[in-house]
Design brief:
Strand content: 25-35%
Distance between the termini: 42 Å
CATH topology of the largest domain: Signal recognition particle alu RNA binding heterodimer, srp9/1
CATH architecture of the largest domain: 2-Layer Sandwich
Largest sheet: 4 strands, mixed
Number of helices: 3
Strand order of the largest sheet: 1-4-3-2
Shape: globular
Order of helices and strands: HHEHEEEEEE
């Protein structure tokens, strides 16, 4: 659904722009989007990318781990967004634990049931 600004809203925005009020514009923008967004990106080799990010000091949320859908790692950017990079799953490795958005660990049993791991 597309929302348009009414006449009064447009005047308010133009007034802010005309005054070059960065502080006020930031207040408007703080409601745009939410921190903690997750993005999944397919890559050719997650392990190679992991080594590069580790060397450069990136915040590693979860190292490369084998899952049914991908061999995947999680990197957290400076804004708290989680970048999930994954390549083809490794057939010769067991499936690993998964960390959700709250940092809770989950494991999947052989019968396909996911359970939260004990802390």
């Amino acid at each position: 659904m597309t929302h348009f600004l009414d006449r009064d809203d447009r005047k308010s925005v133009m007034k802010l722009l005309a005054k070059d009020s960065i502080r006020r514009l930031r207040r408007l923008h703080r409601f745009q989007g939410n921190p903690g967004t997750w993005v999944w990106i397919g890559v050719g080799d997650a392990e190679l990318l992991f080594d590069e990010y580790r060397r450069k000091g990136a915040k590693i949320r979860h190292p490369p781990t084998n899952y049914q859908w991908a061999y995947e790692m999680q990197i957290e950017d400076l804004d708290g967004n989680v970048l999930r990079f994954g390549s083809d799953p490794k057939e010769d490795q067991p499936l690993g634990e998964w960390f959700d958005m709250y940092g809770r660990s989950w494991t999947r049993s052989h019968d396909g049931v996911s359970t939260q791991s004990e802390l």
